[in-house]
UniProtKB/TrEMBL annotation:
Species whose genome carries this gene: Pseudosporangium ferrugineum
Membrane-spanning parts: 52-69, 89-110, 157-173, 179-202, 266-286, 292-314, 326-343, 355-377
Gene Ontology annotations of biological process type: proton transmembrane transport
Protein name, entry field: Sodium/proton antiporter (CPA1 family)
Predominant cellular place of this UniProt entry's protein: membrane
Pfam short name (any one): Na_H_Exchanger
Amino acid sequence: MLLLVFAGVLLLAVLVSALAKRTILSTAVLFLVAGFVLGEDTTGVLNLHPDSPIVGTLAELALFAVLFTDGMRVGWGDLRSAWKLPGRALGWGLPLTLLVTALAAHWLVGLPWPEAFLIGAILSPTDPVFASALVGNDKVPGRLRHLLNVESGVNDGLALPFVIVFLALAAGSDDLHLAHLGLEVVGGIAIGVMVPMAAIMLERSRLFAASSAYEPLNGVAIGLLVLALAQVTHANLFLAGFAGGITVATCGPGQRQAFAQFGENVAELLKLAALLVFGALISAEFLDDISWQGWVFAFLALFLARPVALWVSFRGSGLDMREQAAAMWFGPKGFASVVYGLLVLESGIAQANEIFHLVALTIVVSIVLHSSTDVVVAREFDSEVETPTWHGMLHRGGRT
């Protein structure tokens, strides 16, 4: 039934995608709403629970694909060539966002410090999918689009070690477990670097060469091999995927270019499927279980944490106020946060259920708000449009 529902919603998303590109309609919201409506606690069409095997498996595959393609988007050469603004957002903005979110979780919701910093790490990454009209608009300044693209491409992987460490602290892990965790992290990075380098060196040797028809599959083969080795050796497969993507982008620009479009499509399909499943885990009863402090926390995480963090980060950066405001607002919480929340739920720590509820609420509000306002904000940068439609309506006394 899940495959049938996904296929139907995917076809509908394709048919309305042109309209969604021009309006506040969002295909991401479409999958989220479809999951919500068809979930077990709403209409019962989809029988899915957080502990259902398909939920964990799909989430892992999707996040691996997203991190692998994110890494391919930001090779070391790209980072060195234009690192100034993304470096501010990642070096200052990400940890400050984590800190402000953790403070809100501790003082407002009452989570212990390890759990508060854990939820801060989970909600610190951003997702460019829900701001596609902004990052894909040529009228938007190139430095702003580059900033949002690079930041969202790197921060999933940068936030992951924080999630791993704070999750271990929240679980009260002993020294032996922490040492084992360190080996998983190191092993994942090592596999992500060594496997792509070996594959690229083999292809460049005199003995081997990929035909034009098989060139796009080279990236697929490398990614699958990284994933399989990480699973067999119990290394961290997410860090392996992120490191693998960066290594391919750095050492194999040809392989990167051949894989780019195909990889983006695969990652997008898996991400949309995961959003459908995530929506099915949410219900009116689920949202009703969240206290008013939890609702306030979700809005603070969106309206306070990132704006404050980036306001500090961009002081003296040269970005004008309009660009800064757009960057502050478009820090949508997306797919990586979904999976990190599911990892916490599977961990069995005492506050796992409460953390998942708070993460889920923040993500749902973020998807609805950010994916519905990207077109409006993008129009502010369109020189061919003197004033956005909503601006004119306000001045004429109209209502939105």
